[in-house]
Amino acid sequence: MGHSGWVTVKCRICARTLLIGRDIVYYCPKCYKDKDAYFCEADYKRLKGKCPYCGSELKMVL
Ligand SMILES: [Zn+2]
Ligand SMILES: [Zn+2]
Q: What is the pTM of this model?
């Protein structure tokens, strides 16, 4: 899996730093490349699991 270390992303809603592999992180498969569409668990619930940009179902980052 390489040695690039932990990958962190920022929640697009609350700007919390999320550590992939430690925190539960959701992303939009359509928007994550263009818009860094990552979301924390709390905002995932607030968004009812839908991307605020395109309305797609958010997926959990594994
Ligand atoms: Zn958030
Ligand atoms: Zn989207």
A: 0.88
